[in-house]
Amino acid sequence: MSGETGGAARRYVLATFNRDKARELHALLALPEIEILPWSDFEGAVSPEETGETLSENAQLKARAAALHTGLPAIADDTGLEVEALNGEPGVRAARFSGPGATYASNVALLLERMRGIPPGLRGARFRTVCAAVFPEGRIIEAEGVLEGRITEAARGARGFGYDPVFEPAGLSRTLAEMTDAEKNEISHRGRAARALARRLRERA
């Protein structure tokens, strides 16, 4: 199967089954030269186990699996939450912080429990995202985005997903979950990584 569509847009597979991530990445990677296809549209698609020790390894692992499965270039991301008071935890294991069967709610609950009693000045944290594009011939293009902030004492806001209700970006008084999608995408770690990757892909489209 060719990775080109009549010499116009290059097709990329988005290697995620997380609908929340997919929605954000579709918006952030929107370029006329790029057509994004969901991996779930391809028969037999199965997300690989995220065994990498770094965000880069996990992003590449997922994108490589999709590229091999579909024969098309594939894009994946991996995001970590680094909390200073927890010595950088949960880090690359943010999505699995509360163990097997982890949910957004259980991860947030465990984080707030671990942060109980820590004063405002010591609640610094950062989101870090790596976006990777892997091509069937093995070429890799990567970009990273970081968002500095702090962990709040309680969850606030009903938008977003993951740790958004307890993450307040530096210099702001609202959590990511209290922002609109457009506001969040403008400043977020995933937004920064995806826009940087999109610029590099546009140069090669």
Description:
The protein is of the alpha/beta class and 205 residues long. It has one domain: Maf protein. It is built from five helices and seven strands, in the order E-H-E-H-E-E-H-E-E-E-H-H. Strands 1, 2, 3, 4, 5, 6 and 7 form a seven-stranded mixed beta sheet that branches. Helix 4 packs across helix 5 (189-204). The model is unreliable at 1-7 (pLDDT under 50).
**CA(first)-CA(last) distance:** 17 Å
Q: Radius of gyration over alpha carbons? A: 17 Å
Mean pLDDT: 91
Largest sheet: 7 strands, mixed
CATH level-1 class: Alpha Beta
Number of strands: 7
Keywords:
205 residues, alpha/beta, Maf protein, 7 strands, disordered N terminus
Q: What's the layout of helices and strands?
A:
Blueprint: E1 10-14, H1 19-28, E2 34-38, H2 55-70, E3 74-83, E4 90-91, H3 104-114, E5 124-134, E6 140-151, E7 167-169, H4 181-187, H5 189-204
Parallel strand pairs: 1-2, 1-3
Antiparallel strand pairs: 3-4, 3-5, 5-6, 6-7
Helix pairs in contact: 4-5
Q: Would you summarize the structure shown here?
A:
With 205 residues, the protein is an alpha/beta fold. The protein has helices at residues 19-28, 55-70, 104-114, 181-187, 189-204, and strands at residues 10-14, 34-38, 74-83, 90-91, 124-134, 140-151, 167-169. It has a single domain, classed as Alpha-Beta Complex (Maf protein).
